Amino acid sequence: QKEVEQDPGPLSVPEGAIVSLNCTYSNSAFQYFMWYRQYSRKGPELLMYTYSSGNKEDGRFTAQVDKSSKYISLFIRDSQPSDSATYLCAMSEGGGADGLTFGKGTHLIIQP
Amino acid sequence: NAGVMQNPRHLVRRRGQEARLRCSPMKGHSHVYWYRQLPEEGLKFMVYLQKENIIDESGMPKERFSAEFPKEGPSILRIQQVVRGDSAAYFCASSPDYLQETQYFGPGTRLLVL
């Protein structure tokens, strides 16, 4: 079983829809959870950062972490064509800086 | 405030040559990480460095790969005697002392080995 599972998609939705992106993981020691957005042939861009379980909102983006289910989500409201990209979840055990463990990414397409 | 800088952006090498990839972290960041992204694969952690110290190289291949972050100048990822399987995008990230888990990525170096 891979450490972090993420559906590669592509996920195609119409403009204005609510998008739900998810990851599951197996390592119960993960405490820090991040979502990155990566446009084609660019570097990943940090979108959201969450510690432990709970919700965090930033503009049109909401991140949720359920550590009991080892499940994290990113919601995008009022999706725009410019949101079309690959979304990567990442996580770490923390306790000092360490390397992030990434999912393979979900390719999202927002149809105008 | 300049972000993480990487150069070159594209690098072509023939099998057996050496590849040197450079990374300058964001201003005020003292933690540097290197990741590799193979086609159709996710980002894989390679090494974590602070100034003049390798903290964690658990993701680094044991042979041909090395990394450094000298007191002055950028961090360097060196690949000796490159093989075709080394063709990938190599990303550098940096983080600040006060929030080490938030890593900010550079644009990457795309290495092609012929």
Describe the 3D structure.
The complex is a heterodimer of chains A (112) and B (114). Chain A is mainly beta. Chain A contains no helices and eleven strands. Chain A has strands at 4-5, 11-14, 19-25, 32-38, 45-51, 54-58, 61-66, 71-76, 85-92, 101-102, 106-111. In chain A, strands 2, 4, 5, 9, 10 and 11 form a six-stranded mixed beta sheet that branches. The model of chain A has no long low-confidence stretch (mean pLDDT 93). In chain B, the strands form two sheets. In chain B, strands 2, 4, 5, 6, 9, 10 and 11 form a seven-stranded mixed beta sheet that branches. A four-stranded antiparallel beta sheet of chain B has the order 1-3-8-7, with no helix packed on it. Chain B has strands spanning 5-7, 10-13, 19-24, 31-37, 43-50, 53-56, 65-68, 75-79, 88-95, 104-105, 109-113. At the A-B interface, β4, β5, β9 and β10 of A face β4, β5 and β10 of B.
Annotation keywords:
heterodimer; A: 112 residues; mainly beta; five-stranded antiparallel β-sheet; 0% helix; B: 114 residues; seven-stranded mixed β-sheet; four-stranded antiparallel β-sheet; 49% strand; globular
Structure described in brief:
Chain A is mainly β and 112 residues long. Chain A is built from no helices and eleven strands.
Low-confidence stretches of chain A: none
**Can you count the helices of chain B?**
0
Query: Taking all residues together, what is the mean pLDDT of chain B?
Result: 93
N-to-C CA distance of chain A: 37 Å
Describe the global form of chain A.
Answer: globular
Biggest beta-sheet profile of chain A = 6 strands, mixed
Helix share, percent of chain A:
under 10%
Which structural class is indicated by helix and strand composition of chain B?
Answer: mainly beta
**What's the rounded overall pLDDT mean of chain A?**
93
The tally of beta strands of chain B, per DSSP, is 11
User: Most extensive interface, residues per chain?
Assistant: A-B, 27 and 29 residues
Total E-strand runs of chain A: 11
Please state roughly what percent of the residues of chain B sit in beta strands, choosing from under 5%, 5-15%, 15-25%, 25-35%, 35-45% or over 45%.
Answer: over 45%
Strand content of chain A: over 45%
